[in-house]
Amino acid sequence: MGKTIVTWSPVQGQGCTSNTAALAAVFALNYQVQTLITHTQFSESILEEIFNKAHKMVGFDSGLKALERLAKSNLIKPDAVIDYTETIYNNRLDILGGSQTYQGDTAILQSLLHVTRDAYDLVWIDTATGTPDELTESVLKAADVVLVTLPQNKFILDRFFIQKKDYPTFLDGKNVVYLIGTYDSEAALNVRKIKGTYNLKKIMSVPYSHLFKNAYNTNSVTEFFHRNKLVRKNHPVHEFYESLKTINHFLAKQVDLVRKGDDEEE
Question: Model-level pTM?
Answer without folding.
Answer: 0.91
